[in-house]
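Module 6 notes. Inverse folding takes a fixed backbone as the condition and produces residue identities as the prediction. Think of it as a translation problem where the source language is geometry and the target language is the twenty amino acids. Below is one complete input and output pair. Work through it position by position during the lab.
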């Protein structure tokens, strides 16, 4: 769904750089967590003006 490596996601979650929930040593992501991660990674398209 996120199209990132599991190791990348685990590193970011451990560093608290992405929203997540730790249940003991288990890592869990709610639907809202996934939506927030996707929104944070979204980039706006670059609009270039034509030169005259």
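Target side of the pair, the amino acids:
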């Amino acid at each position: 769904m996120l199209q990132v490596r599991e190791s990348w996601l685990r590193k970011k979650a451990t560093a608290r750089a992405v929203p997540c929930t730790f249940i003991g040593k288990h890592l869990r992501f709610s639907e809202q967590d996934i939506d927030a991660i996707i929104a944070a990674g979204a980039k706006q398209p670059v609009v270039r003006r034509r030169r005259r």
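Reference fact for the lab report: The two ends are 42 Å apart (CA to CA).
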